[in-house]
Design brief:
This protein has helices at 11-18, 60-63, 75-82, 84-95, 101-109, 121-124, 136-150, 184-198, 222-239, 280-283, 287-302, 359-376, 397-402, and strands spanning 43-47, 114-120, 153-160, 206-210, 244-248, 268-274, 307-313, 381-384. By secondary structure, the chain is α/β, with parallel strands linked by helices. The radius of gyration is 20 Å and the shape is globular.
Amino acid sequence: MTGSSTLLRSATAIFALLSNVQAAPTFQLNNRAVAFDYNGNKVRGVNLGGWFVLEPWITPSIFQEWATSQTVVDEYTYTQTLGKSEAQSRLSSHWNSWITQDDFNAIAQAGLNHVRIPIGYWAVAPLDGDPYVQGQLEVLDQAINWARGAGLKIMLDLHGAPGSQNGFDNSGRYGPVQWLQGDTVSQTLTAIQNLANRYKDATDVVTAIELLNEPLGPALDLGGVQDYYNRGYQAVKAASSNFAVVFHDAFQDFQTYWAGFGNGDSEVMMDTHQYQIFSPDQVGRAPWEHVSEACALGPKLAQTNKWVVVGEWTGAQTDCAKWLNGLGKGARYDGTFPGSSWTGDCVGKYTGTVANLSPDDKNNLRSYIEAQLDAYEQHTGWIFWTWKTESAPEWHMKDLIAGGLFPQPLTSRQHPGQCG
């Protein structure tokens, strides 16, 4: 549904949410407004994917022992299979090594100003009976200080909701979409409130909280999604007026569908994710067609009546990366994904390094990345997915920078004027 926002909620509802929050760490901050000028400055950021929410394609080594049986495909089945003690041991090691202070410093040195950090509901509001383990928040607390030292801002992103908001492995649990059913909305509100309250005194760094990553609009009651956004906005703002509140477009048209939503509210931002690889038609496009599609988004973003960040995007023009479509699943590009046909081969892109990509792939990647930077900076800005992977070169920003495929400085162009 469209229509104007109805973000007024009773104080009773707010106090009910506040009654179930976790203790916050100690930070020093004087009262202030949102600590990043989203009107005057461009968001230039990167996601820290695969850190607090596992994704098999980002860290295939974590899932390799189940590559044959395919009985473990997400964080839910991972923790369920290992049990609490072993899962805690393995994941604690991962949380403390996958991203470090050195990464935050390197991100800042690359000219970026934001990191988007995905986290699951189970880290902030665990449910009885879930197999998930906790301990993420203590590492996230450290990351707040790393970001502060590096001069970076953080968008915290609730990446997984109870029941799964999209059925993707990156929601924590692959399978049916059961969010909005039963108590899942109130449980999600508890998670978002706990997150906001924990970091309400760190808004010099945590400038934005995203209410939910990628709710699958076509599989959900969009009225229910909008109602959750309304209530989530109030919950975050009740913790601190210094947060910007971010909502994902739920795979609806970001310019038209949401035009009337949230317009009377302060510091509202929409997040849209722009990939051109998840359908046979998209992977069948020529490199120049990918560039043209990206450029066409620029004016559309510029004409949108609220802040809009492209919160996920990639240099990839294929879905070749190992397990990108799910553990054990193939790619549309080379015809190994069910129902797809061959477009090209995945040599060097299934697994590999940026250095070993073909010259054509390198040129196409650089061109496509530049076009997206030019398009997305026509409005609020962008956050690339993702900072690092174990073996997916088209997605590995750290290595793309080192390999000269992601511009340095960010305004440098080898393919100027692509977007006119």
